[in-house]
From TrEMBL:
The keyword Disulfide bond applies. This is Plant invertase/pectin methylesterase inhibitor superfamily protein. It comes from Arabidopsis thaliana. Belongs to the PMEI family. Transmembrane segments: none annotated. One of its GO terms (molecular function) is pectinesterase inhibitor activity. Gene3D superfamilies: Invertase/pectin methylesterase inhibitor family protein. Residues 1-28 form the signal peptide.
Length: 183
């Protein structure tokens, strides 16, 4: 029955409504609170898609829990970008492409360490702002990969821009969380 309903829910907000009504924990944030939060971000639909439909939101009690989810979504985007390296290796098999993929792989390893640090910090009460800084540091390493495709050799569109853009958008959501927490 639930799988039939999910097939008919196409918008992130529709899925969010279904998920909240079907599985919400008693002391979790209400759907109204989650939607109101997403309205305060730069892109409501992006927020609902990546934060509002994350299964962990069902147990999120407050913005601290939403922060942990947002940072873990950054980790997920980085993991997907890292997997993309192997998927595009054939397309960029020349010396410049090989160098760029190697460069991105190395920088993604560094970014991963910062996102992991941010995730651990976010789980600790009182370290939310430090977690944000660590996540921003991680994004800088992702940016270096993006920059590699524009400035070293012939300009090419990075095959990882989608994931980097998602991380930038998630960082803007993290900024909203921090502003709401610390006013």
């Amino acid at each position: 029955m639930a799988s039939m309903l999910i097939k008919h829910l196409t918008l992130p907000s529709s899925l969010l409504v279904f998920v909240f009504f079907a599985f919400t924990v008693a002391d979790a944030m209400s759907i109204k609170d989650m939607y109101a939060f997403c309205k305060d971000t730069d892109d409501v639909n992006f927020c609902l898609k990546y934060i509002g439909t994350d299964i962990r939101i069902l147990a999120a009690r407050d913005l601290h829990d939403v922060l942990v989810i947002a940072i873990s979504q950054c980790q997920i985007q980085l993991t997907k970008a890292t997997k993309q390296i192997n998927k595009v290796r054939q397309k960029f098999s020349g010396p410049i492409g090989t160098r760029r993929l190697y460069f991105c792989g190395k920088h993604y390893c560094l970014a991963s360490a910062f996102f992991q640090k941010a995730y651990e910090e976010a789980q600790e009460e009182g370290l939310e702002s430090i977690a944000q800084l660590s996540a921003v540091d991680g994004s800088h390493y992702m940016f270096k990969c993006e920059d590699e495709w524009k400035n070293n050799g012939p300009i090419q569109k990075s095959p990882f821009t989608f994931y980097y853009t998602n991380v930038v958008e998630l960082l803007s959501i993290i900024q909203v969380i921090i502003e709401k927490m610390y006013g």
